[in-house]
Design a protein that fits this description.
Helix 6 packs across helix 7 and helix 10 runs antiparallel to helix 11. The chain is built from eleven helices and eight strands. Helices cover 58% and strands 16% of the residues. The protein folds into four domains: 87 residues; 51 residues, SH3 type barrels (Roll), CATH 2.30.30.60; 113 residues, Alpha-Beta Plaits; 71 residues. It has 355 residues and is an alpha+beta fold. The chain has a five-stranded antiparallel β-sheet. A three-stranded antiparallel β-sheet has the order 6-8-7, with helices on one face. A hairpin with a 3-residue loop joins strand 7 and strand 8. The model has no long low-confidence stretch (mean pLDDT 77).
Length: 355
């Protein structure tokens, strides 16, 4: 009877350990999902944490399993081999896609709000997940790429906080002086609000010269509107300078006096102030919100780093006045961090609702 009681007691103890591991795993999974599941922009962290919980739970079950040390070692070795094989074969699996997502996160090639060109697709990053990346195109559509596709194909990034070159290309006849055209195009670049303008002669064709006028947009805000504004400024500058923007072949085939210029008459209407939203605000609405959220997160992280540094400094200070000043600074920064965290949560919920 004593032997049976010991066996039952041992089995109950093992069952209790297994149940405890499963309960802890389910509890951790519930806590993680409660915190991150409703936040679409935090799905990467959610998936990484869930995968970590599964791996650790399996290791814990192997360790507490009622078996000899030799058998346990064999199971741990087998588990390691399976995990290594999964990583080795990950280039063509979902795990490979997840690893590509972690790689994109680690190299920080782009972030939400940045402009990205992937093949024929151009838009702004709205979401970076463990398995996919989403961009909002110029048609305001959402295009999704698998992360492994982004790793295997080159992409061009225009960072939202840095400058980029905006240009317009047009062909004009040989009958107009190059110096005159360059002067007018430089004026157009300045009128479009671009910095460090320049003009290039791109091609000398049989009937026309191809020019490229460009300038730096810094910071990158309203890229679509700026491109349109530069084209309009080039059109207005050339027309006001008496330069005809038309093919020489057209001049030879129309029934008009050769001295006649195909230039619209100057408008007598006063310029009306632009009304309504910028095209970028309409097209990249989700991307704008994602960029704003990323900026708030960076501010929150900076505050937390400052609080940690102040707490370390407080340990080394002996003067009471300095301690009081540092303590007051920590309290103010903590209140700001709490407000920013509330703002982050609200914006994440809003972005998740927009989907």
């Amino acid at each position: 009877m004593d032997g049976i009681a010991e066996v039952v007691s041992w089995n109950l103890w093992v069952f209790a350990q297994v149940a405890a591991v499963i309960a802890v795993a389910l509890g951790l999974n519930w806590l993680v999902r409660k915190r991150y599941a409703s936040r679409e922009t935090m799905q990467t962290r959610l998936q990484v944490l869930q995968a970590t919980i599964v791996v650790l739970s399996m290791l814990a079950l192997i360790i507490i399993a009622p078996m000899g040390d030799s058998r346990r070692g064999q199971l741990l070795s087998f588990f390691g081999i399976v995990l290594s094989a999964a990583i080795a074969l990950s280039s063509t699996t979902v795990l490979g896609n997840a690893m590509a997502g972690l790689m994109l996160r680690s190299i920080r090639g782009f972030k939400p709000g940045d402009y990205v060109q992937v093949g024929e697709h151009f838009g702004r990053v709205t979401e970076m997940d463990l398995l996919h990346t989403e961009i909002q195109t110029e048609a305001s559509d959402l295009t999704t790429f698998s992360n492994i596709y982004l790793i295997n194909n080159p992409y061009r990034v225009v960072r939202s906080q840095e400058g980029t070159i905006v240009s317009v290309q047009l062909s004009l006849g040989y009958d107009v002086s190059r110096e005159v055209i360059e002067e007018l195009l430089l004026k157009a670049v300045a009128d479009a609000g671009l910095e460090d303008g320049f003009v290039q002669v791109v091609e000398l064709g049989d009937f026309s010269v191809v020019y490229r006028a460009a300038g730096i947009l810094r910071p990158v805000k309203g890229l679509i509107a700026t491109r349109s504004r530069l084209r309009a400024a080039a059109l207005d500058a050339l027309h006001s300078g008496g330069v005809e923007i038309v093919s020489p072949n057209f001049m030879n085939t129309r029934a008009l006096d050769p001295a006649t210029k195909v230039i619209p008459a100057a408008s007598r209407r006063r310029k009306v102030a632009e009304q309504g939203k910028s095209p970028d605000d309409v097209v990249f609405d989700k991307a704008e919100e994602a960029e704003s959220l990323e900026s708030v997160r960076e501010r929150h992280k900076t505050l937390l780093d400052g609080i940690a540094a102040a707490q370390e400094q407080l340990k080394t200070v002996t003067a009471e006045e300095q301690k009081a000043a540092i303590t007051s600074q920590i309290e103010q920064s903590t209140h700001k961090a709490e407000r920013l965290m509330a703002l982050i949560t609200a914006r994440e919920d809003k972005l998740s609702a927009k989907g």
